[in-house]
Prior knowledge:
Elements: H1 2-6, E1 9-18, E2 24-29, E3 37-38, E4 41-43, H2 50-62, E5 67-72, E6 77-80, E7 96-106, E8 122-128, H3 133-136, H4 142-155
Parallel strand pairs: 1-7
Antiparallel strand pairs: 1-4, 2-3, 2-8, 5-7, 6-7
Amino acid sequence: MEEKKQLPLRTGVGIILLNHQNKIFVGKRIDNPRDSWQMPQGGVEENEDFFEAAKRELKEETGIKSVKLIKELEEWLEYDLPKNLLGKLWQGKYRGQRQKWFIMKFIGKNDEININTKNAEFLDWKWIEFQKLPDIAVNFKADLYKKLKEKLNSLKLN
């Protein structure tokens, strides 16, 4: 346990992508194919602008380019990896992620979505009601997704 606390958090971004019905894009990860889904997210390269990193990650993971920014969440959100993943992800350099989240509107059509990208991360995707976020996440991201659901509730999207 002491070893875990010594590892830093990886700096990352996350994307809450809303369609025209305010449903959220989620993908089923290739490396965790049980019934857990997640929103697009990823690391930030050195000196990269966070919003640019979010758009890059979205394109890399989903092929999506047609978006407009609704809101950048002010605070940073974090999660820790469970013991069984420590030392396996990110070459064992990090204990979890510290993320800047962006709410974006998808302004394209569903045929723009392509999860079969160069370095594919998802094996399936769907649009869900944002209230379901905590229920679809892997256990170690459930609290993070609860916080994101609360943020979306406060925006009164319906």
